[in-house]
Structure formats: structure tokens, C-alpha cells
Amino acid sequence: MEVRQLEYFVQAARLSSFSRAAESLYITQPTISKMIRNLEIELGADLFYREGKSIRLTDAGEILLPKAQNIVESFSSLSSELDSLRNLEQGHIRIGLPPMVGASFFPAVIGQFHRRYPEVTIRLHEDGAKKVENDVETGLLDIGVVVLPVNKAKFHCFTFIEEKLQLLVPAGHRLSGVDQVPLAELAEEEFVLFREDFALHDRIITACVKAGFQPKVVYESSQWDLISRMVAAGMGIALLPETICRDMDRSRIGVIALAEPAIPWQLGMIWRRDRYLSFAAREWITFAKGLLGEQYPVSGWENGAAD
């Protein structure tokens, strides 16, 4: 049984005529007669009988009609909803953003996307990059913004920012006024870090250990602005990305380049390779990639297909 057979049956019943039904459906009368006859054979019952020049439903046809109408209407509704999804007249996207990233890079992207596709809803989940990556992997999120690198066997990704971490010290610190400082020079300092669920937490500790010391962590936070205030208050030093450091109050905080080694900071957008992406999510990736590429041109982008 095909939906098209039921559609022809419903139209013939509504118009009480094979010829008028065929005309309204832009098909020939032999075609509709054959389709309905095949349906009768499949059901093992006659659906119409002739009454003069018109046709009337049999008792079997009377039973089938309301059910056929429901099926045809449901299929039509499904087609309309799928068309709406394809045309982005509706849709839903779950995106994970680390707090530092969301405030710095995405308000303009989200605003422009919403103006273009006002019926698509975006639910933002703010967590550390490690949790965002895990939630994309498990399917709790469609798309995530994380600190790279990630497992390329699991994720498509594209990089939209490449920077280095810079050193923040309180005004009057012994290193204030220095142009750059080797990482090993910070061995005796007290550090203010992001929490353990942030990728920078492990990245900084690993770099310090490679430089020959275990950093003394006095405080951890999930908010970069709180970290910078604690530095300004003289509670310790911090390492933050260049983008964040540009907004620091230089009268209270010194910003110094880090050398030997520099610690890279790359942000990328990721999504699972083996999971279906909705029309809305695919359009978000294309839209964000284009807009972020204009604002933060990065060489050697990894272009993953949104599939």
C-alpha cells in the first residue's frame, strides 16, 4: 500500500468521480482507476460501486476513508515540516561554549545568525572546554567550541583563532615593565588558574612541568575576569590568551609576552564525524565559519564536511 494510492482514493471519494479526481490530481482517469483497483486487490475488498454517473463508497470504503484521510494528512504535514526544516523555518541547535570564548567571540555571530534565521532556536551550554568536548562526543551537544587539538578520528573541526598565552602580573610586581619572560622564571610564583575542567588548566601545568617546575596554584576559577581581578589584587600571576589580555586595565595589571616556551592557544569548532547533523546545525557551521573567517583569518583551516 502506497500513500499515493490512498491520496487517489480519498480524492475520488471526495469528488464521487474518477474523472474529476483524475483532473484535480493532473493525472489520467485510467491511471487513477488502475491505482485504486490495485488497492482493492491488496485489501481484498471493493471500495466503490457505481450509482449512475457517480461512484459511491462501499462499506469497506467507508471504513477505509477516515483512516486514509489521516494517513494522507499526516504525510502532508510531515512533508511540510521537513520543507520547513530544509528552509530553516524551524530547528534547534545545542552549542557548547567555554565562558571565556562565549563572551569574546560569539555574541555577534549568534546575533547575525538569529536575524537571518529567527525561527531557529539556539541553546547555549557554558562549560569548560574539556566538558564541552565530552558532551559533543556523547551527543548531549551538536556542536562545541574547544581548545585544540582534539581527536581527529572522532571530530570534524575548523580553527578560527590562533594566539599565545600572555603573562599577567599585578602592578609593582618584580617583572613589571619586562618585555618578555621565560616560563622557567615563574617557578617561585603563585598561580591563579582556570578550574580542572578547562583545557588551559592542564595545558599550563604541563608546560610548567616541562620547563622544570610544578606551579604553585593558589586559586582556581571558571571566570577570566575574576582571575584578572585576583591578579590585580596581588594574589598571584596568571596566563591568559592575547584576546583577553587586550582588555586589561594596564594601570593595575602588567601584560608580558611569554617565551621559552610560548604556550599556544587555538580555538576550534567541533562536531562528531559519525553523527547526523540537522539542517540548522549544518547551516550554523557554514555561517560561523564564514563570519569568523572574516574576523579572524587563520591559515590552514581544517575544513570538515558538515555531514
From TrEMBL:
Domain HTH lysR-type: 1-58
UniProt keyword annotation of Transcription regulation present: yes
GO MF terms, alphabetically ordered: DNA binding; DNA-binding transcription factor activity
GO cellular component entries: cytosol
Keywords: DNA-binding, Transcription, Transcription regulation
Entry annotated with the keyword Endoplasmic reticulum: no
InterPro entries named in the record: HTH-type_LysR_regulators (IPR050950), LysR_HTH_N (IPR000847), LysR_subst-bd (IPR005119), WH-like_DNA-bd_sf (IPR036388), WH_DNA-bd_sf (IPR036390)
Pfam family, one: HTH_1
PROSITE patterns: HTH_LYSR (PS50931)
SUPFAM superfamilies referenced in this protein's UniProt entry, alphabetically: Periplasmic binding protein-like II, Winged helix' DNA-binding domain
Family note: Belongs to the LysR transcriptional regulatory family.
The name this protein goes by in its record: LysR family transcriptional regulator
Organism, as annotated: Paenibacillus donghaensis
